Amino acid sequence: MKKMIAAAILGIPATFGFAGCSSSTTAQTGDFNSEAGEQTGRAKQALSVCVDVQRGLPGSAVEDTFLDESSADNPSGASGTLYTGLSNGYEKRSLLKFGLDFIPAGSIIDSATLKLYQNWRDGESTVRVHQVTAPWSEDTATWTSSASSYDATVVSTIATPSQVAGIVTADLTAVVQDWTDAGDNYGIALEEDLVLKTEFKSSEEANAARRPMLSVCYTAPTCDDGLQNQGEEGVDCGGPCAACPPVGVMITQPGEAYGHHGACGGWNGCGDAATCAQWACEVNGYSQLVSHGADAPCTELDNCHLFYARGDIQWNWGNWCEVSGVTDIVCSN
């Protein structure tokens, strides 16, 4: 039996199956072996799957904390804020870790973007990103135990503007590829020059749209034994079945998207694609966002539905101006 999940495949909505789960169709083509109950045809194209990892989303495992030199033996994992830089003469650093076990071994990471909500910065700065080199937990990590447990190589940076609240990003594509290849994902450390401090919202933040998020797109490997499993191109690489992913309902048709009223050329009040997608789930009667796919200006789409605010939407605006719209939205309850 097979269970279906929705995915964004090269910008086109599609589904693929996992052995050992229940459903009635597969997205691949080929001869079906009814005795074995498995798809025996070869996959026709690689699947580029995009997943947002954020606390509160189905299947997501996220930990984060900050390390405080002034309180070197006390953990801060329950804080709603992450800090970097200098505060009252003492340094602060932050750690974040996103569970990525759903990515099959051998996958190619097409993109991986860290999104943080910057709450405060008293002057422009650059926050540096490093790979953590040892296990840690947000419940127990302290300055004493974990402040030096990262590689000195800067793997990415985050530009933090002065006195501006909003989403800032870092490109972690190479880092996630390294984790996928090596199998050791201890997360990332954030630090900056000791001049001022930067504040970000943590996973304990009540507003889910402001929690840290890692958006990953990957293409799983191909294999030759003709059986479906894991999440490759519809064929089996020989490992055991992964746990069935969350099941959802695709609420968008091809060319249909959701965005936010306001100035053309951005997300306006939504803030980002994930928030617009979550709001779209809610106005369609669902409580949870499972995944979303590509985003594009509404002029490149057939129909955009535009929010005035959460729960307040104007339907069927067509391809109206360059406001951003998100497609391939999958929701569940």
TrEMBL record:
It holds the Pfam family CBM96. Residues 1-19 form the signal peptide. It is found in: Secreted. Its main location: secreted. Keywords: Secreted, Signal. Residues 61-209 form the Carbohydrate-binding module family domain. This is Carbohydrate-binding module family 96 domain-containing protein.
